[in-house]
Amino acid sequence: MSLLTGNSHSLSEEELDEYSDGTVKLRNSNIELMDQDILYHLALGSESHDLQEMFGDVKFVCMGGTPKRMENFAHFIMNEIGYKLPAGTQLQDISAYSYRYSMYKVGPVLCVSHGMGTPSVSILMHEMIKLMYHAKCKDPVFIRIGTCGGVGVEGGTVIITEDALDGQLRNSHEFTILGETIHRPAKLDKKLARELKALATADDPYDTIIGKTLCTNDFYEGQGRLDGAFCEFSENDKMAYLEKLRDNGVVNIEMESTIFAALTHHAGIKAAVVCVALLNRLNGDQVNAPKEVMHEWQQRPQILVARYIRKVLSHNGQLKSLFGHQGSIKSPRRFKLVQQESQAHE
């Protein structure tokens, strides 16, 4: 069946049965015919590296925009789950030779930077889903940890996405494939969203809410900002648009959620998006909170996600000192080729 059918369907019962053993399946028969699958932007390969040895124990894939944020999260989650590195070692950026994304492995948790905007996330998601497939990971949970602008929501509020909407308020992501336009449902796991919300406590000095997220293709005009290099609408136009969003249940705006939701759903992977608002867009456009305040705010989604990971590991009897592998080179020659290929087009 061709995927180019105008509107892509949700998984059928027959298709869902394929995922019953928990492993990630690919909707691409070409992969099996390839001598090696090079995960080009991660500087990994299915024959140059022993991906099952390296990543087979991964249960959580946590993604965020910048390499530094995910490096900080890797150190944070290491303390939270009691992960112990082998003596004399330190956390390593597994994808350092790609010069594009950063990846840190902390026991069963992968911490990966995804860059900014849907194209960057799309590239990473294809390769992360294939990585889960090659590593034979079972029931991985993908969580995007990010920042956003609030709509009627004050800065510092933690927002868990219920539905990811595109610029036309559709709960889907639009793709152009072989010149044809298709839409894939941008569905996130609502049970996971509720589980995350339940881990917010009365002692938290901030609110944690669930709501709809608008995903745009642009930070400025696409989000109705007045402070870009171009603006051909009035402040009244902007405010009317933001009020329309609020009337439709939108509580925040960012630039990654629809592609993240569409690709995880298409792969049958449970996923969630947890962001912190950096400002209330009803009060302005520019992010002007002090740096130290912003730093503390950005830790808030990480704290919530860490609570979830701790809860799952504790329930499974895995919350203890963990010893992991930083890497496993299966073929030095192929590894060098993958490394050179990733460096070739910096």
Automatic annotation (TrEMBL):
Assigned GO CC terms: cytosol
Residues binding substrate, per UniProt: 223, 225
Any one GO molecular-function label of the UniProt entry: uridine phosphorylase activity
InterPro entries noted in UniProt: Nucleoside_phosphorylase_d (IPR000845), Nucleoside_phosphorylase_sf (IPR035994), Uridine_phosphorylase_euk (IPR010059)
Database matches in SUPFAM superfamilies: Purine and uridine phosphorylases
Protein family: Belongs to the PNP/UDP phosphorylase family.
Name of the protein in question: Uridine phosphorylase 1 isoform X2
Taxonomic source organism: Drosophila kikkawai
